Amino acid sequence: MIMKYVLMFVDSIFGFIALFLLTKVLGKTHMSQLTPFDFITAVTLGELVGNALFDKNSGITEIAFLVIVWGGMLYLVEVITLRFKGSRNFLEGRPSILIHQGNISYEEMKKNRVDINQLQHMLRNKDVFSIKEVDYAILETNGQLSILKKPEFQTPNKKDLNVYPNPVYLPATLVSDGEIIYDNLKEEGLTEEWLQDELQRQKFERVEDVLYAEYTKDQKLFALPYVEKAKRKSKK
Hints:
Layout: H1 2-26, H2 29-32, H3 36-54, H4 60-83, H5 88-92, E1 96-100, E2 103-104, H6 106-111, H7 116-125, E3 134-139, E4 145-149, E5 172-176, E6 179-180, H8 182-187, H9 192-201, E7 210-215, E8 222-225, H10 227-235
Helix pairs in contact: 1-3, 1-4, 3-4
């Protein structure tokens, strides 16, 4: 009886590792852009491994065979779509223009089984609450909606306003949950003494009193206290 559960445990570990390695080989697109083909892939792989785990006649060899065969077919599809452009529309699908130059394409919506309510819902997810603001709306192959607003509804950028752009720096977390992140501190070319001085200027006696602190080049250190501790101090 115990041996049965040990074998199930070993098979589960192997199945997990095999699927994990398969996703690494296939690339991140299967994770970030779930097309209908990718959805079928995920469901099928889970079903294959699940059946193999609970089938008394199946073991590591059977699981490995199924994962390799299915993974090989997926890899083959990826190679075909990379080398033969004509196969992409069939295997990956193609985007559909639901709104073209401000006009709703009824035929495209019907083809993709999207009604007006669904279109409005997807637009609201893009912070667009009126169809009249949209110049183009494209339904991507992964089901997401990409939109291009009409010029009068677009947000002006710095180029439009003739504002000279400043360089952008990525903030670095220096303190998290009262602990110094030494790797980030070193990467930014800063010292612990500098950090202590900056925190003392902001009335922090100890690093342990800081919930979060981040540093951006050419800017003042941003630090937040523990709210509970701040409240206790104010009561005293």
